[in-house]
Design brief:
It is a single chain. By secondary structure, the chain is of the alpha+beta class. It has a single domain (about 5-90, about 105-385), classed as Chorismate synthase, AroC fold (4-Layer Sandwich). Helix content is about 30%, strand content about 20%. It is built from ten helices and 18 strands. The strands form six sheets. The chain has a five-stranded antiparallel β-sheet with strand order 9-8-10-16-11. Strands 1-2-7-4 form a four-stranded antiparallel β-sheet. Strands 3-6-5 form a three-stranded antiparallel β-sheet, with no helix packed on it. It starts with a strand and ends with a helix. It binds flavin mononucleotide and the ligand C=C(O[C@@H]1CC(C(=O)O)=C[C@@H](OP(=O)(O)O)[C@H]1O)C(=O)O. The ligand C=C(O[C@@H]1CC(C(=O)O)=C[C@@H](OP(=O)(O)O)[C@H]1O)C(=O)O binds next to helix 5. Its EC number is 4.2.3.5.
């Protein structure tokens, strides 16, 4: 059993679509739950004017009937409200072509220049429309479906911010979780009030200077069984799949599992987690491995992080060249976020939920939720008696 999905849609086109295949029948779904995740992606501090226009909401076009999945492909659709302002500029009709609006000053750090060369274009809009992280709204909707599936099996996925522009917050997952459950989630989606104010100040400062900021997000997955993923082949290792998923988020430039790069600096005795029997459970004394050993979950919380670079579009633009004359110019700036790290935490949460759901389906797969629950219960019984 494999979970597959595709997304389509341009940033300023009519909307985004995702098709998800492989979720079982009889999973109870609520449109409100999906929309809540979409709203969380839009709320973070530091975003530009676009988020005031959009009010992302999902419409199910297939695969769901009377609040339950059918086991058939699920099609999700999200409207771009901004499309109204772009109908001519983004029309599919040749007769709507407008002269003199091509983007010819590619932005350093964005997909503009390499995309124009690769796809033989003379207007960077033909690249940026799809390279835009607008696409992440579709991925968050798919992730929300997967999170619903996981929640129904007792697994919870949480994404939050640990660092913005060099301002760090010490990880305290439980604090964040409690605030999240009370719907008191903060503008920077972190858990440390003092760090949060410093992050907000750093974003304001960058904005005033026409600059942008990146940061680090963390995703924790709680309630996982031992043995998701596998050591037997490279593409079955869950750590590799998670790293690929996180690195595929626009502007993500690094991934860590557990201690991550810090593990390279410590001796083994301060890296590996000792194994202890605690009552009926086999546990680890620490969780420096981030819940993964040998490409498999080990029953401890899964903890991964992603590093996001600063936004490439700068209001104080960097130098570039004109695509046609090759003369020096300032890079194009239309409208942009200053910092999208809080939004990226929700995207990271979504892509992790997708990979973990896929691993659950591979291990416990069945055509209906009832079958998956039976398989999981039997396995959990076996692990308990191990
Ligand atoms: C949630 C989110 C919002 C983003 N907003 C912007 C933006 O407003 N302006 C911009 O230039 N880049 C933005 N980016 C980053 C670009 O999409 C990204 O840098 C670009 O696609 C090039 O890909 P790369 O950075 O992975 O090489 C955003 C990324 C994310 C995840
Ligand atoms: C639209 C979204 O993010 C966009 C991602 C983005 C980019 O270059 O990645 C550029 C901006 O688009 P615009 O030029 O329309 O303001 C962001 O707003 C979104 O997150 O829904």
């Amino acid at each position: 059993m494999e979970l597959r999905y595709l997304t389509a849609g341009e940033s300023h086109g009519p909307g985004l679509t995702a098709i998800v295949e492989g979720l079982p029948a009889n999973l109870e779904l609520s449109t409100d739950d999906i929309n809540r995740c979409l709203a969380r992606r839009q709320e973070g501090y530091g975003r530009g004017g676009r988020m005031k226009i959009e009010r992302d909401q999902v419409v199910f076009m297939s695969g769901v009937r009377w609040g339950k999945t059918l086991g058939s492909p699920i099609t999700l659709s999200i409207q771009n409200r901004d499309w109204e302002n772009w109908q001519k500029a983004m029309s599919s009709q040749a007769e709507d072509r407008q002269q003199g609006i091509a983007i010819t000053h590619p932005r350093p750090g964005h997909a503009d220049l390499s995309g124009v060369i690769k796809y033989r274009q003379d207007d960077a809009r033909n690249i940026l429309e799809r390279s835009s992280a607008r696409e992440t709204a579709a991925r968050v909707a798919v992730g929300a479906l997967c999170a619903t599936f996981l929640r129904s099996l007792g697994i919870e996925v949480l994404g939050y911010v640990t660092e913005i522009g060099g301002v760090c917050a010490e990880a305290q997952i439980d604090d964040y979780r409690e605030r999240f459950e009370r719907s008191e989630v903060s503008p920077c989606r972190t858990y440390c009030a003092t760090a949060e104010q410093a992050m907000i100040d750093a974003i304001d400062k960058a904005k005033a200077a026409g600059d942008s900021l990146g940061g680090v997000v963390e995703v924790a997955v709680l309630g996982l069984p031992v043995g998701l993923g596998s050591h037997v082949h490279w593409d079955k290792r869950l750590d590799g799949r998670l790293a690929g998923a996180l690195m595929s988020i626009q502007a993500f430039k690094g991934v860590e599992v557990g201690l991550g790069f810090e593990a390279a600096r410590r001796p083994g005795s301060q890296v590996h987690d000792e194994i202890v029997q605690q009552g009926e459970q086999i546990r680890r004394r620490t969780n420096r491995a981030g819940g993964l050993e040998g490409g498999m979950t080990n029953g401890e919380p899964l903890v991964v992080r992603g590093a996001m670079k600063p936004i490439p579009t700068l209001y104080q633009p960097l130098q570039t060249i004109d695509l046609h004359t090759k003369e020096p110019f300032e890079a194009v700036v239309e409208r942009s976020d200053v910092c999208a790290v809080p939004a990226a935490a929700i995207v990271a949460e979504a892509v992790v939920a997708i990979e973990v759901a896929s691993a659950m389906l591979q291990k416990f797969g069945g055509d209906a939720m009832e079958e998956i629950r039976q398989n999981l219960n039997a396995y959990q019984q076996y692990v308990q008696n191990f």
